[in-house]
Amino acid sequence: MNKIRKAFENGKAFIPFVTCGDPSLAVTEKLVYAMERAGADLIELGIPFSDPTAEGPVIQAASMRALAGEVTTDKIFDMVGRIRRNSQIPLAFMTYANVVFSYGIERFAGKAAACGIDAVILPDVPYEEKEEFSSVFRQYGIAMISLIAPTSQERIRMIAREAEGFVYCVSSMGVTGVRDRITADVEEMVGQVKEEQEIPCAVGFGISSPEQAAQIAQKADGVIVGSAIVKLCGTYGAECVPYVERYVRQMKEAVLAAQGQEI
Amino acid sequence: MSEGRFGIHGGRYIPETLMNAVIELEEAYNHYREDPEFRRELQELLNDYAGRPSRLYYAKRMTEDLGGAKIYLKREDLNHTGAHKINNVLGQMLLAKKMGKTRVIAETGAGQHGVATATVAALMDMECEIFMGEEDTRRQALNVYRMRLLGAKVHPVTSGTATLKDAVSETMREWTRRLSDTHYVLGSCMGPHPFPTIVRDFQAVISREVKEQMLQREGRLPDAVLACVGGGSNAIGSFYHFIGDPSVRLIGCEAAGRGIDTAETAATISTGHLGIFHGMKSYFCQDEYGQIAPVYSISAGLDYPGVGPEHANLYDTGRAEYVAVTDEEAVDAFEYLSRKEGIIPAIESAHAVAYARKLAPTMKKDQIMVVTLSGRGDKDCAAIARYRGEDIYE
Questions:
Q1: Rounded to whole angstroms, how far apart are CA atoms B226 and B252?
Q2: CATH code (residue A6)
Q3: Mutating which of A19, A77, A98, A169 best tests the B interface, going by the most B Cβ atoms within 10 A?
């Protein structure tokens, strides 16, 4: 859990997401190293799910591509094990309840911990259902990240009180995907969390440009970007690594500039 | 464990963005379900608009032909819009109206739930958008036209396998986009709490009527009640008021597609495993890594990889039995009922008729069986003709 907190010690954090196995696990591994070089503070590794109901078209398509390439949870555990020989960057799995549940929560948590995962994000497990998962992950030292949404309102305090690692603030209504405007009152959401617990808040859903990232970074501790990066993987396939590296560097610079720091 | 459980099944496994919406729905439902004004309005709609109570018809020719149990058909196919779906839609949309919603969205498989939703949206002057797998828009082209005629916008869903499960996923995504003025009219006894309970309560009118009608006609309870199961809404409605009567066998008929020993099946209880999907814990057809299986059935309405959580629990407790019926058996039953009784059943309902043909001869002549005809089969005629090698199109 301390490792997650570390991600927020290098100024405002930039947190990229990639779908494991898109276009291949070998490329995913290279992406992790490249993103770390470019200044990423924590990396979300998506374990593809056949029916990702919280994702927009970009990540849905990436999940389909990865599954078509016969990526499995076991192969992803092996990849994370390889990454851990070369890198100590904080890593979080992002996937869906059924991927963990069908594997066996205990078995999944055990393997995830053994290969070096620090946190897990399950967008279809809300506060009311989390105990079944978080109680097991906690035993293995893995933080289960809580999400708050623009519709959470009075639920924010309840969620924040029990949050571990960091709080994932969903910045927009709807599913993941690039948006022109971020509509949620991020400042208000983050403020409510901090009144309950001094825990880092990272904002995601819809962010793609350095300008948006800089704006969000003024109000939160970190910025999460998924679809914009996954789009690059989709466009450039096996050649995507330098493009993603350049993009992540640009975004990290933008979030740092937002707090008046330079790389 | 959270609320809304049926044994270990159910719950609400949904994104945080939707949580306040389902809580608001639950509170509104708990309020209005006891509200005499709401109940009166709903009853009036069910009677005067949908044509309830639906008939309990003694299928004399079928009974004599099979030579066993006395067979009654619960004629949900005679409801307005041609299926049981209208029972739930009227309830949910009246509730949505009371909650101040002006727009409804819904998934549909065979198109019957979409047609019912579009119909009631026209009646109640609400905006309506229907999500339907692209594959199903081809299989059920006539229903797509009906929905458009009724003023609804139909979105063909191209993600995943482009069938019912993808339509549900896409409707959930749309709901997270736009909540404040929109109610999701979920069509089956599935999804996150409180949907499985709400849909069951609105469909329970089926077994309430069967019980009354049976006591009036025969002076006793039936020995078996049969209904087809996809998500399971007509089955849970047919079972509900008999759950406490252990002498009544409750039998759900799942779609085996090309057979439960093939990959082309949608028989969730026969072939699935415990999982979490579409907001609920229940049984799902899935692979060893929890990836949801691309299921198959000739019937678009049963072509779903999961089953409602209350059915999963009725199976666990042994209170209900679940059997699998193949495409071929269902098509045979479709033709059989048409010729024996002059009733063309929906291909979904034909799955229950098919099992009735197997079961009735094993029962005694003084025993009674009720088969719910969840819908009428006009929508299926072209597809069944094609299945039999006749090249006709609507």
A1: 6
A2: 3.20.20.70
A3: A98
How are strands ordered across the β-sheet holding A43-46? A143-144, A119-121, A91-94, A43-46, A13-19, A222-225, A201-204, A167-170, A146-148
For residue B314, the Cα-to-chain-centroid distance in whole angstroms is 16
Which among A24, A54, A16 has a CA at the least distance from the CA of A172? Answer: A54
Asked if the bond preceding A200 is cis, omega within 30° of 0, the reply is no
Residues belonging to chain B: 394
Residue A263 lies in a domain: no
- What are the phi and psi torsion angles at A162 (to 5°)? -105, 5
* DSSP for A199-214, written as a single string: --EEEESS--SHHHHH
- The Cα–Cα gap between A192 and A152 comes to 11
* Contact between B16 and A149 using a beta-carbon 8 Å cutoff: yes
- Smallest CA-to-CA distance from B289 within A48, A19, A140 is with A48
**Residues of B with catalytic function:** 85, 107, 374
Domains of chain B by start residue, with CATH: 5-46+84-199 (3.40.50.1100), 53-82+204-387 (3.40.50.1100)
As for the ipTM of the complex, it is 0.95
Chain A hits for B12, Cβ within 8 Å? 126, 128-129
Q: CA–CA distance from B119 to each of A209, A245, B25, B32, B89 (Å)?
A: 44, 53, 22, 22, 9
Nearest residue on chain A to B175, judged by CA atoms? A174
- Beta carbons of B334 and B364 less than 8 angstroms apart: no
Within 13 Å and on the Cβ side, how many CA atoms surround A59? Answer: 29
Chain B residues within an 8 Å CB radius of A152: 16, 19-20
Query: Could you say which residues from 195 to 234 on chain A have a Cβ atom under 8 Å away from some Cβ of chain B?
Result: none
The whole domain housing A124 covers 2-143+173-186+204-256
pLDDT values of chain A reduced to their tens digit, one per residue, 263 residues: 468 999 999 899 999 999 999 999 999 999 999 999 999 999 999 999 999 999 999 999 999 999 999 999 999 999 999 999 999 999 999 999 999 999 999 999 999 999 999 999 999 999 999 999 999 999 999 999 999 999 999 999 999 999 999 999 999 888 888 787 777 789 999 999 999 999 999 999 989 999 999 999 999 999 999 999 999 999 999 999 999 999 999 999 999 998 765 44
pTM of the predicted model over 0.90: yes
Cβ-contact B372, B235 below 8 angstroms: yes
Number of residues that this document lists for chain A: 263
Total domain count, chain A? 1
Distance from CA of B280 to the nearest CA of A (A): 10
Q: Does B12 touch chain A (CB under 8 A)?
A: yes
Instruction: Please report, rounded to a whole number, the percentage of residues in chain B having pLDDT higher than 70.
Output: 99
Q: Do A102 and B286 touch (CB under 8 A)?
A: yes
